[in-house]
Amino acid sequence: MKDLPPDPPVWTPPPERWFDRHExxxxxxxxxxxxxxxxxxxMTLHDRMRLPLPTRPRNFTAAEGEMAxxxxxxxxxxxxxxxxxxxxxxxxxxxxxxxFRNLLAAKGxxxx
Length: 112
What we know:
The protein is mainly α. The protein contains four helices and no strands.
C-alpha cells in the first residue's frame, strides 16, 4: 500500500484589512476617531495606488487634521466611500504625501 501524501500547508488568512471596512461616524468628534479615520484614509490611498501598505502609523500634521475635519463636515457619513472612489483616480506621478494632501483638500470633490 502506498504512503499518503503529506498534508498540505495550512491556509492562513491575510492580515486584517480593517481600513476597507472603516466608516467614519461624523457624530464622534474625538481625536482618536479622527486619527483612526486619517489612518484608514492613508492606508486606503496606499492600497489604491498599489503601493506596499505602511508598517508603522503615520504622524499627521495639525493642518491635515483640520482638512480632514472640513472634508468630514462636507461629506458626512459618506466620507470613506467617496475617499475610496477618489483614491482610484490619483495621478500616477504624485507621491503618496502629495496625493493625500490633494485629496484632503477635496480638490474637485465639492464646490465651495
